[in-house]
Amino acid sequence: MAMSFDPFSELDRLTGNLLQFRPGPRFMPVDLYRDGDQYLLNADLPGVDPGSVDVDVDGQLLTIRAQRTAAAHEGVKWLAQERPNGTYLRQFSLGEGIDSSQISASYDNGVLSVTIPVSEKAKPRKIEVNTASKADSQKTITV
After folding, report:
1. pLDDT tens, position by position, for the chain (143 residues)?
2. Dihedral sign from CA coordinates of 23, 28, 29, 33
3. What domains can be seen in the chain, in order of their start residue?
């Protein structure tokens, strides 16, 4: 029987296993984008107990924490245990134009969604430009 061996994929697997058991918080992948007058952040947290998810704002720092606990299976012989457990942590620096009092979050099907609204003073607005013609009459142009 012919077998193929890819040393690079084996190295990736071994490195991933070593990093999985490192102390400290785990990495949580996110998508962050702006949609109109708000920013939307979606974080993948599969298998996390919703009660362990903590989202807080301290000044201009948004912090997301979550805990995933290992399933307790006494007396079993593990053949593979690749799903990471532990604490997940991400921090984001918020800009000056954020309405931090209106930030909201929801958790559904393993995805944490955080809505970050733009403050009224940071929203785009029209500025009136006044010009004077030769006859000294005022004309208003909206830009």
Report:
1. 345 566 676 676 666 656 555 566 778 899 999 998 899 999 999 889 999 999 999 988 999 999 998 877 888 888 887 777 889 999 999 888 888 889 999 999 999 999 999 887 766 778 888 887 654 555 556 55
2. negative
3. 23-71+85-142 (2.60.40.790)
